[in-house]
Design a protein that fits this description.
The protein is an alpha+beta fold and 536 residues long. It contains 14 helices and 19 strands. Strands 1, 8, 9, 10, 11, 12, 13, 16 and 17 form a nine-stranded mixed sheet that branches. A four-stranded antiparallel sheet has the order 4-5-7-6, with helices on one face.
Amino acid sequence: MFHRRLLAGLALFGALACAPLPGAFLSGAARAETFRWAGGSDAASLDPHSLAEAVQLGFLGNIYEGLVRRDLKLQAEPALATSWRTTSPGVWRFDIRRNVRFADGTPLTADDVVFSFRRAMAPAAGVRGLLTMVRAVEKVDEFTVDFHLHAPDAIFPLAIPNILVMSKAWAEANGATESSNPARRAENHATRNANGTGPFRITERRQGELTVMAPNPHWWDRAEHGITRAEFRPIAADATRIAALLSREVDLIYPVPPQVAPRITATSGLRLIEQPETRTIFLAFNHGEDELKHSDVRGRNPFRDARVRRAFYQAIDADALVRGALRGKGQATGLLIGPQANGFTAEADRRLPVDIEGAKRLLAEAGYPNGFAVTLDCPNDRFVNDEQVCLALAPMLARIGIRLTVNAMPRAQYFRKLAERDTSFFLLGWAPGTLDAHHTMRFIIRTPDAQRGLGTWNYGRFSDAETDRLIDAIAIEQDVARRNTMIQQVWARQRELVAFLPLYHQVVSWGHRDGIVVGQRADDYFDLRNVRMRRP
């Protein structure tokens, strides 16, 4: 089960050059024209190493590229590397594609790759946690790079599509050799300027308002999109975003809120495309504070008691959340990963039953017979109907005496608040970038370790020695059966401790006008290269 399809893809694609997109995309573009699209939020920075967040990385993937990229089925395929292989245990060798140029015309070499990965591994980089398995990056020759890992890792190529390659010369000339980081409010030239090898280059950038792109004339791959100008507008308000599509001010929008999806399907000339997303939405508790900052409980932290966490779990009806706030567009879950990822099993996904009386008894046993008040931090423009979901949780928890205050805010403010550890209880979503359970475990569950880049999104500071031991062992285990057994042991431990509260898997929902063909990825990354302009 351990990524057999993905590993097969690595074996096949690792030795071959990139193939063209299949099916309807083979015929090329009918004519060149402008493409306009709108999303719920904007990239926080143009620096490719500044933030390990899907909106950021998906947007920048149109401008920058990694050694490996994912196709529409999320299979790994060559990008700036043409092939890869292990040369010894713990060493992966990548052959760099020749005759590639950055948007400014500078040729790509191994020096740029080594520079970019070392930059991404530095303490200032927000993507640093994606490379915890890498000990060193070394240039072999002008077009060959070796990655020395701390231990053998059979799926290392699957872990690096989001490590985007910069021009070393451009970064040095513009004072951007170190990553900027919006979470730390640190900026440099790369924050608002870009120079990548990707299919598009930026010609105009007004953050939060408009980004204009044009095809990169130096792009090494075959451009079939037919786009001569691409305009992106971040539109946070759902109603405004929908209105922009209905009026044809834009050609495509994402996400489409569940409550307006029927309107799109009923409107002539518009199409709705959907599929299950790799992202799981869950609630996380603050385990780290001796006293919760945003609660009326004084002198102790109720979330350090597993009985309290279990009471919350048993008071929340995830199926009702999906039926109500999501209008049926989602799947309730008992896991922090979806069925697309290795490590998912139906048994582990089984949710704890809703049990209001049992939850009340647990709270009373823990010393809270009358419940308590706590604030739930929530974004209002990041996940599908995120604020509505958080508001729907309040009456559910009120049934057991929990007085919930929902503190909803824009995505940028929300993630800054989490990074500053200024939260007691929060909603979060995560998609495993490697399509493997270990990705979620090392970022979300593992005890935070800043030096090793582990637990970087474990903002509630959950910590359990046995869980850490298993997660670290999974990282280096080469035997497939033993590895998968340990993954299930982590899930069993999580179920016992109720360390996190899984809610549901999202649905990717986009709307677009007739006259274009759009390739949709289950991880909700939007690739302009997968758009084909067609006349209605």
